[in-house]
Every structure is written in C-alpha cells, then in structure tokens.
C-alpha cells in the first residue's frame, strides 16, 4: 500500500511515453525486415480458425511438434514455411491477419493473409465455403496499409512495404480442388489442361501485378509441389501407389509456365522483383531419394488413414507416426516440418536449379548493402 505512493505519476507517464517512442520510432536497421504472406494451406498460419470453413487445422494432432504442442491452424506438425523464413529474417512469425493481436507495433512485423483452400481462381475451393480468396487477401493488404498509415504515417508505411519480403504460395488447389476435384468438372469441360494452365497463369499474373502496384518489391513465388506424389493422390488417383501421372503432368506444365511468367514480369518491372522457388524440384529430390534426406518414406503420410495414410484428413482418430521427422509428408497433402526445413534451406542457399534468378541469402545480402 505504502509502496505505490513512491511512484511519481508524471515520471511514470514520461517513462511510458519514452517507451512508446522507442517502439514507434525504431532505427530501421535494428528492426528485422517486415514479411507479408499470401496463399493457401501451405502458408496459412491460423486465418481459417476465424472463419466458417471446413478447411481447418485446429484440432490435434496438428501442432504436435509446435513449441506450444497445440494446434494453431498451421497444416503442419510444427512450423510451416513462413515460420521458417521469418526465423531466417531474425523475426518473430507474422501473425494471421484476422488475429486480434495484430495491432499496434505488431503491425510492423508484417502480416499473414494466407487461407487454406484458396486458389488463383475464385471458384477454386468453393466446397470449403468461407475462405479468403486471393482478391480478398489483396484487399486486406490494402486495408492493412491504411491501418499502418494511421500508426506511422504514409511515407514510412510506403518505405516499410517497399523494403519488405513477400511470399506467394498458391496454385495447387486450382488443380486438386477444382480441375481434378471431380471427374468432368466444369473447368475440365471448359479447358484442355494446357489451356487451363494458360488461363490460371494469366489470372495469377494479375494478382502479382496488383501486389506490385501495392508496393511489393521482393516477392518469393513458389511453384506447386509434386502434386501427383502426395499420399492423397497415390491413394486416390493412381494405381499401385505410383505418383498420379495426370497431376504430375499438371504440376510440370504449371511450374514451367509460372517461371516464364515471372521472368516476363521481371523484364517489365525491373530485375529480380519476383523470385521463383522451384519447390517441385526440391520435393522431387526427397520423393526420389527419401533416405538421403533422413526420411524413412516419402510415400506414406505420418497422419491419416487408409492406403499411404492418404484417405480423408488428419484428425484425432487417425494413424499417427511416432517420429514425425522421419516422414516427408505430415498429412495426405502437406509436408512435415522437417520437409519444410529442407525446402527453406534450398530457398535460402540453393543454386539456380532451385532459385531463379537467385537464392534468398543473396537477395538479403544485396538489400542489406543498398
Ligand atoms: C473474383 O471475385 C471478386 C469479387 O466478387 C471479383 O471482383 C473478381 O473480379 C473475381 N475475379 C475473377 C477472375 O472473376
Ligand atoms: C546462392 O546464390 C549465389 C548467387 O547465385 C551463389 O553464388 C551461391 O553459391 C548460392 N548459395 C549456394 C549455397 O549455392
């Protein structure tokens, strides 16, 4: 009781004000670079938990290897790719855009707009009901900039966005949860595969153009994984558990068109704004030679049921492997944390076979020296 009277309220207020200044006016060098994430379940870190959707990872055993040992909305046993990239930037993981904690100084870290189930097209993932489709993720990014402007002003907001790193991961669902969702799907009646790929790449280009218009100047764009080799596809769309030929063909076509499209954007906007990460090649390495990378298998998911644990979704009653680090796939569709680590290692330091025009550590060095 007596102790509290020792505090001079003016001093407390002044001290609080100085603390606030220290938070709001950091030296730009001292703060890790902001990071913004867009895309699907490979990058969603909890947005779908706030939505009425069936595309969610909010019950055990999801998150079993996360520091809290609890589900977070990430489609992983532990960290996902954005978390591991944040760690490389020396930063905390970005918060989901819909999180109520994303206010004040937390806005400076960046934000994650990813939403499981989305694709490049609006009609992709319709069966999951409410998800944040790509145009909406970009609308939210505009809204984010208005909120940040209210906090630090327009010119600092612009600088923060121009100097930030962006990650875009989308496209797989346009095959798995659209074109090939059911036999004779509407899109497959409308387009042959090569024409469909051309169409979605053209739509993707518009999203990237808009991201550029909104200030993005360093954008990592990942291709799809080897879609046909996911345990779900081995179980459902192939014979003898081999990779599904049709989905592998789709991924190959899409990934090569995507790289060409990014080269075109770089020619137009100036070099090295869009960086292509050949995630299919990274995956292929450990799908072809799992033991080289410390996996016992790349065919069977750690969590699931049925052949290859590839049927349905991962849930409390599923088969669950005891050592998640030995499996390339965590659930029927998504890589394990260990696989995500290998992918991020290649993103950081891979040769031009994986990263075009260059790997992320080179980009970070370049940006640090300018
Ligand atoms: C997707 O939906 C949004 C909102 O309804 C619309 O503005 C946009 O044009 C649509 N995109 C395409 C490619 O149809
Ligand atoms: C990263 O990219 C740079 C530039 O292309 C290259 O010199 C370097 O060797 C790459 N890192 C690794 C580990 O290959």
UniProtKB/TrEMBL annotation:
<dbReference type="InterPro" id="IPR036514">
    <property type="entry name" value="SGNH_hydro_sf"/>
</dbReference>
<keyword id="KW-0443">Lipid metabolism</keyword>
<keyword id="KW-0732">Signal</keyword>
<dbReference type="InterPro" id="IPR051058">
    <property type="entry name" value="GDSL_Est/Lipase"/>
</dbReference>
<keyword id="KW-0378">Hydrolase</keyword>
<dbReference type="GO" id="GO:0016788">
    <property type="term" value="F:hydrolase activity, acting on ester bonds"/>
</dbReference>
<feature type="signal peptide">
    <location>
        <begin position="1"/>
        <end position="30"/>
    </location>
</feature>
<dbReference type="InterPro" id="IPR035669">
    <property type="entry name" value="SGNH_plant_lipase-like"/>
</dbReference>
<protein>
    <recommendedName>
        <fullName>GDSL esterase/lipase</fullName>
    </recommendedName>
</protein>
<dbReference type="GO" id="GO:0016042">
    <property type="term" value="P:lipid catabolic process"/>
</dbReference>
<comment type="similarity">
    <text>Belongs to the 'GDSL' lipolytic enzyme family.</text>
</comment>
<dbReference type="InterPro" id="IPR001087">
    <property type="entry name" value="GDSL"/>
</dbReference>
<keyword id="KW-0442">Lipid degradation</keyword>
<dbReference type="Pfam" id="PF00657">
    <property type="entry name" value="Lipase_GDSL"/>
</dbReference>
């Amino acid at each position: 009781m007596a102790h509290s009277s020792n505090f001079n309220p003016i001093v407390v207020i002044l001290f609080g004000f100085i603390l606030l200044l220290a938070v709001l006016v950091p030296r730009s060098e001292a703060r890790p670079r902001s990071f913004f994430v867009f895309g699907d379940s490979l990058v969603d870190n909890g947005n779908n938990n706030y939505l009425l959707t069936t595309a969610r990872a909010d019950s055990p055993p999801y998150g079993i290897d996360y520091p809290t040992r609890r589900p977070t909305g990430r489609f992983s046993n532990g960290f996902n790719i954005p978390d591991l990239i944040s760690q490389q930037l020396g930063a905390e993981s970005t918060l989901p855009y819909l999180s109520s904690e994303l206010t004040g100084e937390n806005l400076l870290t960046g934000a994650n707009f990813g939403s499981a189930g989305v694709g490049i097209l609006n009609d992709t993932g319709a069966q999951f009901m409410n998800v944040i489709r790509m145009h909406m993720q970009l609308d939210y990014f505009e809204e984010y900039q208005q909120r940040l402007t209210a906090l630090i002003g327009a010119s600092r907001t612009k600088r923060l966005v121009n100097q930030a790193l962006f990650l875009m991961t989308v496209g797989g669902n346009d095959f798995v949860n659209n074109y090939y969702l059911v036999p004779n799907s509407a899109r497959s009646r409308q387009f042959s595969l090569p024409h469909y790929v051309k169409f979605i790449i053209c739509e993707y280009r518009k999203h990237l153009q808009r991201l550029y218009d909104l200030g993005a100047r360093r954008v990592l764009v990942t291709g799809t994984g080897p879609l046909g080799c996911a345990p779900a596809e081995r179980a459902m769309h192939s014979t003898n558990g081999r990779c599904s030929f049709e989905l592998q063909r789709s991924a190959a076509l899409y990934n090569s068109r995507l790289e060409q499209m990014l080269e075109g954007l770089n020619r137009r906007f100036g070099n090295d704004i869009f960086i292509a990460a050949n995630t299919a090649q990274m995956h292929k390495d450990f799908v072809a030679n799992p033991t080289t990378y410390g996996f016992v298998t790349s065919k069977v998911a750690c969590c699931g049921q049925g052949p290859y644990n590839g049927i349905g979704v991962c849930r409390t009653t599923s088969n669950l492997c005891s050592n998640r680090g030995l499996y390339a796939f965590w659930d029927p569709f998504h890589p394990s944390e260990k696989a995500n680590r290998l992918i991020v290692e290649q993103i950081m330091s891979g040769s031009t076979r994986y990263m075009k025009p260059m790997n992320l550590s080179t980009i970070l060095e370049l940006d640090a020296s300018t």
